[in-house]
Amino acid sequence: MDKKVLIICTGNSCRSIIGEALINRYLNGVEAYSCGVSPSGRVNPNAKRVLEENLLWREDYYSKDLDEVIGIDFNLVVTVCNHAKETCPTFPKSVPIVHIGFIDPDGKEYSAFKETYREIKETLLPKVEEILIKQEGDKMQKNLFKTNSGVKISFKGVVQKQQIVKMVENCKSGNCECMSDETKKKITNMEIDGKDGDVQLNLSGNISKEEIAKALAKSKVLN
Which domain holds residue 183? Predict the structure, then answer.
C-alpha cells in the first residue's frame, strides 16, 4: 500500500500526534499526518515523553492547522475526539472520514498518556489498516493478457460494463484521448463480454500489452 492518512483532534497536541507517530512506525506503506481544528501550537510534554520512551518521537512532529496539510491527497481522515468529529472540515477531494474516539489525557498524570498510547496502538492501528485494505479491494483491477489475436483486458472489482462500453465507443468515434493514433490504427476489432464487476475486453490487432497499459492509465472513463 502507498497511502496517506490524516489524524485530527482539537489541539493536535496529544492524541493525534501519538496516532500519527504510531501509524508511521507500525503500518507499512502508510504515511500519517496530523492536525487540529483549533491547534494549541505545542505538543504536550507527556505526549512527547511517551513517544520518546517508545522510540517513536521525531522532531518534525508538531501542532499545526489543517491549512498546512489540506493540499495532500489523503486516502483516509480519522477524527479522534468528538469536537473534531463535529467540526471536521470539508476537503477539496472526496475522502472517507471515520471517527475513532479516545479520552483526552491532557491535564492528567503521565500514566494516562501511557494508557492513551496503548489504546491508540491497539485500537486505531488495526482499524486504519482494515479500512485501507478494504479500499484496495474496492478498486478496479485491470489485468492484461497477450493473446494470439491481440490483447485481452480483464476488469474486475468496482467496474460497470457500461464504463467499458463507453470507453470503446470513444475509441471508435475518435474521441479517445488516451490512445495514440499509431495504436488506434493497429486495432482491427474490439469485443466486450461479461457483466458488472467482471468485464472482458478483447482487442484484435498487432498490439502489445505495454501500449494498451499506457492507454488505460490515461483513460478518463476509467480513472
Answer: 141-218
Selected catalytic residue, list 9, 35, 171, 178: 9
Q: How far apart are CA 157 and CA 220, in angstroms?
A: 18
Q: What is the pLDDT of residues 151-171, one digit of tens each?
A: 999 988 778 888 899 888 888
35 is catalytic: no
Domain boundary among 110, 138, 166: 138
Contact 219, 155 (CB under 8 A): no
Residue 198 lies in a domain: yes
H or E element that contains 105? none
171 given a catalytic annotation: no
Model pTM score? 0.65
Output phi, psi for 182, to 5 deg.
Answer: -65, -40
Does one domain contain both 40 and 124? Answer: yes
Instruction: Determine the length of the chain.
Output: 223
pLDDT digits (tens, 9 = 90+) for 44-80: 999 999 999 999 999 999 999 999 999 899 999 999 9
Which domain CATH number covers 29? 3.40.50.2300
* Catalytic pick among 81, 171, 176, 178: 81
